[in-house]
Amino acid sequence: MSASTALPVAESRTVRRYAGRLVRKHPRMVWGALLLHVLAAVAALAAPRLIGDLVEAVEHGTTTEHVDRIMLLLAGFVVLQAVLTRFARYVSQVLAEKVLADLREDFVGNALALPLGTVEAAGSGDLLTRTSRDVDQLGWSVRMALPEWTIAVITAVVTFAAALSVGWWVLLPCLLGVPPLVIGLRWYLARAKDGYLRESATYSQINATLTETVHGARTVEALRLGDERVRAIDDDIADSFAAERYTLRLRTVFFPSMEISYLLPTVGTLLLGGWLYLRGDVSLGDVTAATLYVQMLIDPVDRIVSILDELQMGAASLARLLGVADVPDDRTATDRVPDGEELRAQDVRFSYGAGRDVLHGVDLHLGVGERLAMVGPSGAGKSTLGRLLAGIHPPRTGSVTVGGVALTELPLDDLRGHVALVTQEHHVFVGTLRENLALAAKSGATEDDVRAALAAVDALEWADALPEGLETVVGSGGLPLTDAQAQQVALARLVLADPHTLVLDEATSLIDPRAARHLERSLAAVLEGRTVIAIAHRLFSAHDADRVAVVEDGRIAELGSHDELVAAGGSYAALWESWHGRGS
Amino acid sequence: MIHLPLENPGTADSRSPGRFLWWMARGQWRTLAAGAFFGIVWMGAQAVMPAIIGRAIDQGVADRDGSALAWFAGLLLLVGLVQAASGVIRHRFAVTNWLVAAYRTVQLVGRQAVHLGGTLPRKVSGGEVVAIGTTDLSHLGQVMDVSARFAGAVVSFVLVAVILLQTSTTLGLVVLVGVPALMLLVGPLLSPLQARAHRQRELMSHLSNTATDIVTGLRVLRGIGGEQVFHDRYRRESQTTRRAGVQVAKLQSVLDALQVFLPGVFVVLVVWLGARYAVEGTITAGELVAFYGYSAFLMIPLRTATEYANKFIRARVAAARVVRVLALTPDHQDPAVPLPSPPEGSELVDLRSGLRVRPGTLVALVSEQPHETALLADRLGLCAPEVDDDVRLGGVPLSGLTRAEVRRRVVVSDTGSMLFSGRLGDRLDVSGDGRSVDRALRTASAEDILAALPAGLDTVVAERGRSFSGGQRQRLVLARALVAEPEVLVLVEPTSAVDAHTEARVATRLREHRAGRTTVVTTSSPLLLDAADEVVLVRDGRVVATGRHGDLLAAEPEYRRVVTRETDPEPVAAGTSGTTAAGTVEVER
């Protein structure tokens, strides 16, 4: 098992720069949306002012005509606000969709450019989380939270300005609300993010346990693990409950502090305004309008506050998505061109991260067209050696060269033309079987090429039997292929990609042994003249190869043809004996 | 707050989605009632706020009465505090209601999965059940959550209507008729909007799947190429999704505007009527301000009612899925009166294939097609979809025993065996005595796996054992089956993903480990076959030959073909020397 390396997370400076770039990319829409929202918010302010005038008028005695005029004006503003809201919302939604599309396309582009070594070492877990959870979170933030928040901020600012326009005295009661707001918010935000992340992690855990129980239902029954599974589910629920209680406690403190910070300014405005009215400093209409404006502030301020943690999480997701672009390239391509196709490893030592070496001075020279089988106990370093021979990692010391040029000096596109690796981990992409095969073909695979490649891996028969033959949609959501078929697809891809050297790491391990030997032989026929390094766990694969390398404890312990090794009487010979039932 | 998870989630009424929801609600009626109560207090407090502000302006400000102003301001503060307090208590009950419903659903489905066992994957797709864990539980939780606010909405609506009716019959009626009418006005827009939003969500999930697909296959794409093709594909789908989002925005923005316009018009209407009454002197200026406040406030219960309707529809869909799973029954129903269990050490016989497994022996099953022996293995342990009377233990048909009894005596470890997540030691120690794990790991030749783990048996296994390679997982699964130490152990292809060095070790150790107990192995590996007391060749579901590995190799050409994989004529360009594996064997023998 390789050490897993976490992908980097972008710094907040990078995130800000990126956000700035996105804004500058669509200047007209950004400014247009902002302007429309400001106008809509201004139109909304007419109501309290006009109601205030109305109250004033009623108090002093007025005519029905005057009331009708004010109300018609109010109706006009309502229509205006509605129309402005329509366009403001529309423009900002369209903008959000554009920005979101840019973001996710950039992310996938960056993921597709990740260095080969990182892809192989990091595993797909971290990247998968970013692809699903962070893209979703960001989608939510950009689509809903960000526009809502922007609107709320604009509305709050405009409303506050309107309240002040009634008189500077309105500022005083508003200040009353600031301490509980600021203290409550700071206390809450410092804890909320971790609390909610933990909470959502517990739901992933519940779901994972439930999924395992469902998919492993047969195993559960066979080994009578029912009680244990029920306990595991209940334990997960207990964890989740604890996390829920924590965030609930946060809200139990936070919500009332917000409510109080909304309540104090309303009460204060009423009292202060009333007092000023009694002193004759302000009119009744002013008091009414000020009280209504201050009440109108509650909704946008509440939205600003409640969306903040959502934005916080969105920013964190964005940082993780952008971080993928920060992975340094692990190859330094030179313009040296390999002279020939000979693969040579000299005194190769290697360790994952800083630690003890897993390979201790391996020398190996492969002739063009040679077929080498690597056998040995698990954990001996076969797969690591395979990766080095495929140019995925550079050796710590020593060299792995093709035609005299180090593999890691070759640009990735060139490397693929020389060496390719197929492991037992396979993947069938969503798409037609033909698309799955042709993705690496050098220059558009013809029908004959594809069929020949399938035939070479004994897969033509089942491929033709698929409902729509090569055009059948396979992969997740399409027709499911068995593990064995998926391995055949992986091998057929390699045949079409046609590099001169192939490293097969247990590439047929999931295929039934009865079929695997036949497959290996027909594949060998197609790959005649190609150099093949096959890491094998079945002895017949070794038997069929030109040379066998026995890898033990990070060294090549035995190297020679099958017959030579059997004659030498070493560990390979012992194994071969027992394979034929003479060992026991 | 009550303690969760529930000790026992109970037996759900799974006759219909509606009954299920009712059953669920009945089970948590106390917290639902408490939530509703505080919801009513909370919204009621909000509802009377405009009235207090109106009175304050009337009797305090307009009448220039300082003490009345102070009194009403104090009342406003008090009601505000009541609102804040009842709001947070209501919220706490709402969360409890959500959690009880959601957790209970998970408990029910988990227990049902355990009860159904091997039947589950045959009757319902895994994805269907998993959807319960991801989305349905939150839909079921939400309907319980929103119920408290819904109760508050209904009561506060009535409260405001009564206040208005007392002030003015016309105004009261305008509000009572107007608010529901507004709800209906928005209605026609909702269904096309939902259709577009649905399409957008579908595209989004499709897009997300494409991204996941790309990332999962990144190793392949970076290894042999095709990045550009996939980036272009993703970009195309991303733009399609974006356009769907724009389509949603077109309607959504109209709806947003209507949510400004309709309440706005309503406010204008109410205030207009109020202002005319005020001019006539029927109502005061303060009451006019209160009317404005009421008509603005009424939009909150209106929104809550709409929300409740939406959540209820979704909860019904979720409940339908849960009910479908909960209503399933296992393929093998326990007999009403089970037959007496045969004594330990009985012979296992299958009348259909003619297989006889002598107690205490290691028997290997071989067939040309691996699924033939796999099916036979399943039948030996009452794991096949079709239940038959042909498999007998000590003469008693397995179908005549209870499922629990069969599982106690016969364990079938199939190729799909799942390694569960959690502490490795716990996941392996299925017998619970903690002693047999080391021995089983040795037998499965899994010591090196353990040695490579810094935390040893304390290592936390990732979901489905994904942190281990296929070969490692297979050995750990084998070790776990050995720990169970059943009277009869049936292993299906236990070493197919293991290298030859290791397989050789497993073969010899397995025999020692199971000495005295019955073990059946399906395999085609010579290393394992050689270790068996008896090898049985199966063709077309029937036993065609029985004997020791060596004897069968010598005497049975068909067996030799199957075991040495020389099934077809040599491909022309195979390029190997003349000596084949089979050839060597024949010469040596």
From TrEMBL, chain A:
Residues 343-578 form the ABC transporter domain. The chain crosses the membrane at residues 70-88, 146-164, 170-189, 260-278. GO terms for molecular function: ATP binding. It is found in: Cell membrane. Residues 31-313 form the ABC transmembrane type-1 domain. It holds the Pfam family ABC_tran. It is a multi-pass membrane protein. The keyword Transit peptide does not apply. SMART domains: AAA (SM00382). PROSITE patterns: ABC_TM1F, ABC_TRANSPORTER_2. Keywords: ATP-binding, Membrane, Nucleotide-binding, Transmembrane, Transmembrane helix. CDD domains: ABC_6TM_exporters. Its main location: membrane. This is ABC transporter ATP-binding protein.
UniProtKB/TrEMBL annotation, chain B:
The keyword ATP-binding applies. One of its GO terms (molecular function) is ATP binding. SUPFAM superfamilies: ABC transporter transmembrane region, P-loop containing nucleoside triphosphate hydrolases. Its main location: membrane. Residues 323-565 form the ABC transporter domain. InterPro entries: ABC1_TM_dom, ABC1_TM_sf, ABC_transporter-like_ATP-bd, ABC_transporter-like_CS, P-loop_NTPase, Type_1_exporter. Keywords: ATP-binding, Membrane, Nucleotide-binding, Transmembrane, Transmembrane helix. Residues 573-589 have a biased composition (Low complexity). This is ABC transporter ATP-binding protein. Residues 33-314 form the ABC transmembrane type-1 domain. Pfam families: ABC_membrane, ABC_tran. The keyword Transmembrane applies. It is a multi-pass membrane protein. The chain crosses the membrane at residues 32-57, 69-89, 146-165, 171-191, 260-279, 285-306. It is found in: Cell membrane. Residues 565-589 are annotated as: Disordered. It comes from Nocardioides oceani.
